[in-house]
Amino acid sequence: MVEDSVIVEIKCADRLQPVHKAQLLTYMKLSGIPVGLLLNFHTAFLRDGIRRLALAREAQS
């Protein structure tokens, strides 16, 4: 958690799986923080391993 405004989930996997996204979404819903970053360091270029997720306003409640 960074500054109570974003959750960062760090992975080092061959490929991001749907379970990784679901895990981050669960953390976001439970904490009430609407923005999350999923970082996978097992890529040739870091920019290819970055995924930003945001909750819809109705899902935050």
Task: Summarize the entry for a quick read.
With 61 residues, the chain is an alpha+beta fold. It is built from two helices and three strands, in the order E-H-E-E-H. The protein has one domain (7-60).
Q: Any overview of this molecule?
A:
The protein is an alpha+beta fold and 61 residues long. The two termini are 19 Å apart. The chain is globular. The chain contains 2 helices and 3 strands; from the N terminus they run E-H-E-E-H. Strands 1-2-3 form a 3-stranded mixed sheet, with helices on one face. The protein has one domain. Helix 1 links the parallel strand 1 and strand 2.
Primary descriptors:
61 residues, alpha+beta, 3-stranded mixed β-sheet, 30% helix, globular
Order of helices and strands: EHEEH
Overall pLDDT score: 91
- What is the gyration radius calculated from CA atoms? 12 Å
Count up the helices.
Answer: 2
Q: Give the class from helix and strand content and strand pairing.
A: alpha+beta
Domain unit count? 1
What coarse outline follows from CA principal-axis ratios?
Answer: globular
Distance between the termini: 19 Å
Main sheet specs: 3 strands, mixed
Present the secondary structure layout.
Elements: E1 7-11, H1 18-31, E2 35-40, E3 50-54, H2 57-60
